[in-house]
Each structure stands twice: as structure tokens, then as C-alpha cells.
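sorry for the late reply, my laptop died twice this morning and i had to redo everyting from scratch. anyway the thing you sent over, i finally got around to it. pasting the sequence first so we're on the same page, its 462 residues, then the predicted structure underneath. double check i copied it right bc i was rushing
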Amino acid sequence: MAKSAKTKMVFFCQNCGYESGKWMGQCPGCREWNTFVEEPSAPKTVGAKRPSSAVRSRPVKLADVSFEENERTLTGMAEVDRVLGGGIVRGSMVLIGGDPGIGKSTILLQICGNLAGAGRSVLYISGEESLQQIKMRASRLGGKTNDMLLLCETNLTDIREILEEQKPEICVIDSIQTMYNEEVSSAPGSVSQVRESTGVLLALAKGLGITVFIVGHVTKEGAVAGPRVLEHMVDTVLYFEGDRHASYRILRAVKNRFGSTNEIGVFEMREKGLVEVPNPSEYMLAGRPLNASGSCVTCSIEGTRPVLIEVQALVSRSNFGMPRRTATGTDYNRVNLLLAVLEKRCGMNLSGSDAYVNIAGGIRLNEPALDLGIVLAIASSYRDAPIDDRILAFGEVGLSGEIRAVSQAEVRVQEARRLGFKTILLPKANYNACRSVKDVKLIPVENIREALGNAGGNEYRG
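ok and here's the structure:
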């Protein structure tokens, strides 16, 4: 009896998919530590096979390619359509990630119900739930899901045959970590399986013109579990943000080949599923304290949408030699930099005080335009002097204390005026572009000393 060939084992980086013949402490690709796992190597014949029913591609001239702007399918949820760039593009692949229980399956089931109710052919493939469990959730959501096809399967070979036979317009894979390819010997959810399964689904999406939504589990750091190459293979990557114990959810596009990146959609989780929040600015400012120190309203541009949010700061004297610094919803290192600028340029003794900065509403923002709002909130708490409730401030703060220009200033001013803000502190370089906006007082500032003086009166002047 011939001895079977020994299976070759290789090491994969769980973060980026880097392959190595030996274990290494640090990945040369992504520079992360302790991410290598040992798995059987995939056969050379394994790959994204072209569907048997697909037409072989031929080179064509760019001028001969027909394209219409309205070739998108609306999902029935305006917030989802906004994040996708105006609707679903035929033949695209969309990856949705997020923490367990945050609502990934819920929103996909709602989208499938809307599309099925509009006469679209939809196939929902689940590897985690039974048909009865999906039916229970669909009944709770109350959507028009009676015409939607369901399938509980994890074998990718069977899924490929069914997709080639049914040819649905929309297909949902929940989740990619449960799918397995028989030609890959590693376990479901491993780096090899996730990568090869995604490659097969990508070939089916492009070859048959099927829009595929795949659900991806996330790691404790918040990234999609499996190789980073998964995000490069798909057309759109959406992340659900927010605390699953809270009522709000934020759907953010971190990659989109057919629309704006960093676009957000805001939802509220209710008993019958996710409900859209068409005006997130009012939602984020709900419950804002009046005449309280350490609070300032600023404006951020998320994709194409201006969002007003409240920055909260608490500065208190430290009882230890090492003051505590905490930043929730924004970059921790950026907050430390702004604290140093305030201490150096305005003479505030913050080195002996604890400082806590929070972006209210649970949203996470890293835009430089938030700098001025963070600075004003910290100074307000330090001096215990409230900022006028009708003042809004935005601008980037430099290391010398100067206020630098930001993009789309006029859009920010228009959104602030619409929500009733009467005074706006903005960079002097953006003033001329915003002078046409009526019924609002614009105060151009060049440095943080000017901003502090105009925000709180003589109490701030050094």
C-alpha cells in the first residue's frame, strides 16, 4: 500500500494573511505580534473557479461600455442606500462586520424583506441559524419576507450549485466564517477557508451578476476576523458601531468602490428591528446639558453628511503624581497633543490635573475639525466657565496654537444654522467662503487665545 503524502503545514498571519514556512513572533507584512497560526497549505488547484454558466469575458473598448447612473437597486432603507453610495450595484460584494449581537443579521433580514417585497429574487443563506430561527426573527421584524428563499448550508460546493441554478439577484451569506470549501483541508473559520470561500463567492458575484452580502465576525480589536486580504477582495466594507446594550447603531462605510467612504447611517434598535434616524445631528444633541462647563458643540463631516456632536471634557486636580488621561470616541494621542498646546500657549497648568474627553452619543470621530471643540471644552472645564449654548466651533489646531482651515466649511455652517446655532467660531481662512450664509454670526479666529476669548468672555483671557 502506497504511503500517502504528508500534508504540508504552513503558518498564516491571522491579521493580514501573510504566509510563511516557519513561525515568527512578528508578522513582516502588518508588523503585528503573535498573530501566526499553523494550518495545512491549500492545494495549488484551489482557486476562485469561474461559474460554468458564466460567459467568457472578451476585451472591449472603454468607449463601448454602457453605463447608466440609475443602475442601482434601492434597499428600501434610505440610510443604507446613503452608506452604499445610492443603492446596491449589481454584481458587487459587500462585507458587513460588527460586534456580536449588534444587529448585522437583523438589518440584512430587513433589507432582504424590502427587496423581496419589491419583487426582487433574494436568497438568504445561513450557516449559524436554522430555518425556524430565521422565521421567528422575520416574524418579529414584521417585514414582507414571505417570498424570500432560505437555505441553511455551509458547504460551498452545494452553495455554488444552488446559486448557478437559482441565479438570485441578491444573496446573503451569514456568516463567511461558517462556510467551508471541501478542497481546503483546514477547519471552517481559518485563514485559508475564509480566503478561499470569499474567492469562490467573488467569482460567482462577478460571473453571474449576483449581489452578495457577507457577514464577517470581528476580533476583540474590532477588525474583521480572518486575513486582511478579505477587505481588499470585496467592493464595499461596512462596519456596525455602537454599544449593543444601547439603542443607537451607526453603520459606517470604510471602503466603497461605488460611493463615498466614511459615510454613516444612523439607526435606533427597537422591538421590531432597526429604525432609521434621518436627522442624526438632533439625535446626537438630544439631552445636552445647558449652562454646564466642559461642553462644546462642534461639527464633523462624515462622508457627505455634516453631523453636529457634543464634546464633553472634565478636568479635575489629580491626587497622584501621574495625571490620568482618557479619550472616548476620539484619538487619545490627539487629546494629549491638544492638552500640551493649551498648557504651552495659554498658560493653563494641566500637568497636575486629570483630563477626560468624551464624544457624546457613542459615535467615534477622528476628524481634525474637532480640535477646536475639544480645546474649548477642556478650557471650559478647567476654568469652570460654561460656553454659550448657541455657540458652535470647528477648526484644526496646530502646535503653535493657530487655527487652520478645514474642508466644506460652508456645509458645516449651514447645518449649524439649521439647528438654531446663532454664533459660529471658525478658522479665519474659511471666513470668506461662509460669508454668504445669513442669520448667523460668524467669528473668524486665528489662534486658540482668540477662540477662548470669544467663547467665554473675559473669564478666558490670559
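The two ends are 90 Å apart (CA to CA).
thats about all i looked at so far, will dig more tmrw
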